[in-house]
Write a structure and sequence with these properties.
By secondary structure, the protein is of the alpha/beta class. Helices cover about 35% and strands about 20% of the residues. It is built from nine helices and twelve strands. The protein has helices spanning about 20-30, 45-55, 80-85, 105-115, 130-140, 155-170, 230-240, 245-260, 270-285; strands at about 5-10, 35-40, 60-65, 80, 90-95, 100, 125, 145-150, 170-175, 190-195, 220, 240-245. The strands form two sheets. A six-stranded mixed sheet has the order 2-1-3-5-6-4, with helices on both faces. The chain has a six-stranded parallel sheet with strand order 9-8-7-10-11-12, with helices on both faces. Helix 4 packs across helix 5 (about 130-140). The chain is globular and about 60 Å long.
């Protein structure tokens, strides 16, 4: 009998509203694994120390969330092909003393998107140009999207991401400035909030856009899982749009991370139910 548990976790800031640990530990218990997932508050200046600590303590791996998905790359030994194209990492495997960076965010989003619409031939517009936006832009393009538009306040970052998508995928891509009351174009099929706008506790805040541009039938997706139904999604639903919460993306990327760390196929239904329960409790407190 071994008294040494398998250890994984997450490095982010802020970390207190991250529900990932609840669903990951539920998956561990369901699979009968002696394993833990530690949700850690890590400031940017402490990331290198946190990564060295995880390696020194024999962790199996960890997730990186805001604001570490880009910065962590410089601390790794190797990237998967998908992570290399995306240029951002949200999942790290520690194996034989080496750190392998993967990105499961975009794959998780595409699987979730397919519950509403197939990405093939669609015109996708993404608000944001950070790690989540990079993953979603690349993976939707690789899944067959016809075009990807990046909208961001810092226009240079939007331009850089659009150029990256155009250079590494078959889709066309361009950048637009995020002006006040931004109007989504008539040809857009899928709108994605890949920013932290609307995340708990600022759950009443939504994207600065013209509500009239949200047409019935288009898909409006949010990467935020807490709260599951954001102000943006409530607005979109009132306009007749198809909506997609961040829960599916979070569960799917967690499934992929668990496969990488354990080699097992986790029970996604258990993870989804635990996540929904945890967020209901959070909303009451």
């Amino acid at each position: 009998m071994s008294f040494l548990s398998l250890i994984t976790g997450s490095f982010s800031q802020p970390a207190s509203d991250n529900p990932t640990g609840a669903m990951i530990e539920a998956a561990f218990r369901h699979a009968g694994l002696d394993a833990r997932y530690l949700n850690c508050e890590v400031a940017p200046e402490g990331l290198a120390d946190a990564v060295r600590g995880a390696k020194a303590m024999g962790w199996r791996g960890f997730n990186c969330s805001v604001p570490h998905k880009l910065a962590v790359i410089d601390l790794l030994d190797e990237l998967t092909p998908a992570a290399a194209i995306i240029g951002a990492v949200n999942t790290v495997l520690i194996r034989d003393g080496r750190l392998l960076g993967e990105n499961t965010d975009g794959k998780g989003f595409v699987e979730s998107l397919r519950t509403r619409v197939e990405p093939t031939g669609r015109h996708v517009l993404i608000f944001g140009a950070g790690g989540a936006a990079r993953a979603i832009a690349v993976e939707t393009a690789l899944a067959g999207a016809a075009s990807v538009t990046i909208v961001n306040r810092a226009f240079a970052r939007a331009e850089a991401l659009a150029a990256h998508v155009a250079a590494h995928t078959p889709a066309s891509a361009h950048a637009e400035r995020w002006s006040e009351g931004y109007a989504v174009g008539a040809g857009v099929d899928v709108v994605v909030n890949a920013t932290s706008i609307g995340m708990h506790p600022q759950h009443d805040v939504t994207l600065d856009l013209d509500p009239q541009c949200l047409r019935p039938g288009i898909v409006v997706a949010d990467v935020i899982a807490n709260p599951p139904v954001t102000a943006l999604l409530r607005l979109a639903e009132s306009r007749g749009c198809l909506t997609l919460t961040g829960l599916g993306m979070l569960v799917n990327q967690g499934v992929a991370a668990l496969r990488l760390w354990t080699g097992l196929e986790p029970d996604a239904a258990v993870m989804q139910a635990t996540l929904e329960s945890a967020l209901q409790v959070s909303a009451k407190n």
